[in-house]
Design a protein that fits this description.
About 75% of the residues lie in helices and about 0% in strands. It has about 750 residues and is mainly α. It has 4 domains: about 1-115; about 250-375, no CATH class; about 410-545, Tetracycline Repressor, domain 2, CATH 1.10.357.50; about 560-735, Orthogonal Bundle (Tetracycline Repressor, domain 2). Helix 4 (about 140-165) packs antiparallel against helix 5 (about 170-180), helix 15 runs antiparallel to helix 16 and helix 19 packs parallel to helix 21 (about 625-645). It is elongated.
Length: about 750
């Protein structure tokens, strides 16, 4: 309806306007003009109307947008109010505390500063704690400590004032203590950082000495505060919680633990995983300790104030830690070689130039003033354990060496020869190599032990040689049961004989090398004894080898002085060839024994030859036979003489005299004039005074022409005759027995 009214009003107005325009008739001509003008006006009004509506719309849009933002802001404010409310509720307790604390302060008028600035401190406390915590985490320890000191100072003064006003009021004290509780954690956190630096001080001092210096400065500051607080305690009785901190003392304790751990931590292996575990362990300790002390002397010393005496304190710590470690090792169940390694290290290496005696450590380290790492008592126990272990080891080694050697004796191959071609076995070399090794080991410890070990070796050698002697005897007996076996019996017996000479020489060189003159007397009897046993072994060996020769000669010796012999058998030729053949092997016997062998062989051949005569196997029928037999004897004596001269070549030993006896007997048999027989026999007896009556009787029986009365007369007369033996003559007839009951058939 409003729209209709408006329309009506518009129409009325328009009518009125048109009426006003057309009041005169001439104005009708201008109707077109009026119409155009009105049309233009209308267009203008419409345009303005449109713009006004557009502008109105834009304004509405902007308004809506701002209302929307306003709504969001209201929501944010609402949330913030909730948060504030929450914080407020949580802070009520703290505010109550602060109210109590500030009330106490204002009430007692503690602080000269205004309540506002004091409250500022209380409110900023959590912030300062956070900052300090950040500094610690960033490793800026000096600044962190400065803040911590300020906080502690505030708290301590506060508590001191409270104490002064009312020392019995623990409630208020606890109030303050609780409020500043985080500060204690800060102090512990900082300390933890300091101890980490102290633990690694020997590394840190090389990489970042300023860090170490900062730590020392902090400790020094704390020591100063400790002293101040203790002084105040003397005067007032008050000391803040956590004092004295004693950080210097703690620092030294940390260092001590670090040193102990460093030394214990060097054992990388156990005996199961590595035979040389102890040697390795001790070597690593030596290296670490020397390196550490050199660093301590050259670098660490400069980071600490002189009154810390840091180098000497550390030196002492290392010495104590080493003493503890060495005692632990000494208490373990060590093997003999391990005992030596330990003692050698403790008694020698420790104070040597490789360790504490290093020139770069002097003059600060004086090895003469260092105590022993283990007591003399423990050293003695270890040494006695070593000696008893070594004794049983040596007995075991010697037994094993002999068993191994015996296995060689039955081999089917010859023993090896030394560079001069003398047969030998490895036994002496093995035995003395073992002695040498143990003596060199003992020498690492000290002279005294070396002498004890040498005496032990020689003492065991003595018993060993007795066993050696018994074994060679058994070897010989076994061989005699079956002479075909072992195949190389002669060669191995030669090796045994040569070993005796090697043993003798080795004993002498061992004593010369390892023995001081003053101990020589203690050993002379045992040495003489060993030499005697060795001579017996060698002599029995030689004699068993000659037994071999004479067992092979037996059939040929049995042919001597028989009819066959007289007819021209070649028994002596065969004997000489056999002996020479054996002596080709005997050339492998060392000189002193070979010389004895040659003499003994010569002597035994002559003895057997004379025994063959005394056996009365033949009795010559006439002068012709006597001449023939005697000449054969003289010729054969010459054969023997030639053979043994050849065998003894180079030894310069005259054994001419032995064959002379055969020739002298031949002269008695050859004699053609019986009236001169007494004279010839008496000459023989004066030269060889050990000839007995039964020998002369046997000789006359072989001659075949002397009656019983004649024999009787000659024998009785001889007893009064003087004897003129050669001073070098070794009695030979006393070995020869004459058979009594077996009367040769030829005499019947």
């Amino acid at each position: 309806s409003t729209m209709e009214e408006t329309d009506r009003e518009a129409v009325a107005t328009a009518v009125q306007r048109v009426a006003g325009m057309l009041q005169r008739p001439d104005q009708l001509d201008k109707v077109e003009q009026y119409r155009k003008r009105e049309a233009r006006k209308k267009a203008s009004v419409e345009a303005r109307l449109k713009a006004a509506i557009q502008s109105q719309l834009d304004g509405v849009r902007t308004g809506l947008s701002q209302l929307h933002n306003a709504l969001n802001d209201v929501k944010d404010i609402q949330q913030s109010l909730i948060d504030v409310n929450k914080d407020w509720r949580q802070s009520i307790n703290t505010i109550e505390n602060l109210k109590d604390i500030s009330f106490k302060l204002f009430q007692n008028n503690y602080y000269s500063c205004s309540p506002a600035s004091f409250l500022a401190l209380l409110f900023s406390f959590p912030e300062i704690v956070r900052e300090t915590q950040d500094l610690i985490e960033r490793g800026e320890l000096l600044q962190a400590h400065r803040k911590l000191m300020d906080l502690e100072c505030s708290r301590d003064n506060l508590m001191y004032e409270q104490y002064r006003m009312d020392s019995k009021n623990t409630h208020d004290m606890n109030l303050i203590h609780t409020y500043f509780g985080d500060m204690q954690k800060l102090s512990e956190e900082l300390a933890k950082q300091l101890w980490m630096v102290v633990q690694r001080s020997l590394v840190t001092v090389r990489r970042d000495p300023t860090l170490l210096v900062s730590v020392v400065r902090i400790i020094e500051r704390e020591e100063k505060i400790d002293r101040r607080m203790l002084d105040r305690k003397k005067q007032t009785g008050f000391i803040p919680p956590g004092r004295p901190k004693k950080w210097k003392e703690k620092m030294f304790n940390i260092l001590e633990r670090t040193v102990s751990t460093r030394i214990e931590g060097t054992q990388a292996d156990t005996r199961e995983s590595d035979k040389m575990w102890l040697v390795r362990h001790l070597e690593i300790i030596r290296k670490y300790v020397l390196d550490d002390l050199l660093v301590a002397k050259t670098l660490l010393d400069q980071c600490f104030p002189p009154h810390y005496d840091i180098f000497n304190r550390l030196l002492n710590m290392y010495h104590q830690a080493l003493a503890t470690r060495m005692q632990e090792l000494a208490a373990e169940d060590l093997e003999a070689n391990e005992i030596v390694s330990l003692l050698s290290w403790v008694l020698n290496t420790y104070k040597s130039a490789e360790m504490m005696g290093n020139s770069e450590l002097s003059p600060e380290v004086d090895v003469n003033s260092l105590d022993s790492l283990i007591s003399q008592n423990v050293v003695d126990q270890l040494l006695s354990k070593y000696m008893s272990t070594l004794t049983s080891n040596i007995i075991g080694w010697l037994r094993k060496a002999l068993e191994t050697d015996k296995k060689d004796w039955i081999k089917e191959t010859e023993p090896e020869a030394d560079q001069d071609g003398y047969y030998q076995t490895t036994l002496p070399a093995i035995v003395f190599q073992m002695f040498e090794q143990n003596l060199q080991v003992a020498a690492q410890i000290n002279e005294d032990l070396k002498t004890k070990v040498l005496l032990l070796c020689l003492q065991q050698m003595n018993s060993f040689l007795t066993r050696y002697k018994d074994e060679t005897q058994l070897y010989k007996e076994e061989h005699l049961k079956n002479r075909q076996y072992p195949q190389c019996y002669v060669q191995y017996m030669i090796a045994v004989i040569n070993n005796c000479q090697t043993f003798k020489e080795s004993i002498i060189s061992l004593k010369r090398k390892y023995l001081k003159a003053d101990v020589e007397d203690m050993l002379s009897s045992s040495h003489t004894n060993m030499d005697a046993i060795l001579d017996i072994i060698a002599k029995e060996g030689c004699s068993s080898l000659l037994d071999e020769v004479f067992m092979d000669l037996e059939p040929h010796l049995n042919e001597l002085m028989t009819k066959k012999w007289l007819m021209g058998s070649n028994a002596v030729g065969t004997i000489c060839v056999t002996v020479e053949d054996y002596f080709n092997d005997f050339a492998r016997i060392k000189k002193p024994y070979k010389k004895t062998m040659t003499l003994e062989a010569h002597r035994r051949v002559v003895v057997e030859y004379i025994r063959a005569i005394m056996l009365k196997r033949i009795s010559f029928k006439n002068a012709e036979e006597r001449k023939e037999g005697a000449e054969r004897m003289i010729k054969e004596a010459e054969q023997f003489r030639f053979l043994f001269k050849k065998l003894a070549a180079g030894s310069g030993e005259g054994t001419e005299g032995l064959c002379d006896i055969i020739e002298a007997i031949a002269e008695v048999i050859k004699l053609t004039d019986p009236s001169l027989l007494y004279l010839e026999v008496s000459t023989l007896v004066s030269k060889y005074p050990d000839i007995r009556d039964d020998h002369i009787a046997a000789l006359l029986t072989v001659r075949g022409d002397a009656s019983r009365d004649m024999k009787q007369t000659i024998i009785e007369t001889l007893d009064q005759g003087p004897s003129q033996p050669n001073p070098n003559y070794v009695p030979i007839f006393k070995e020869i027995t004459v058979p009594t009951l077996t009367v040769p058939k030829l005499l019947k």
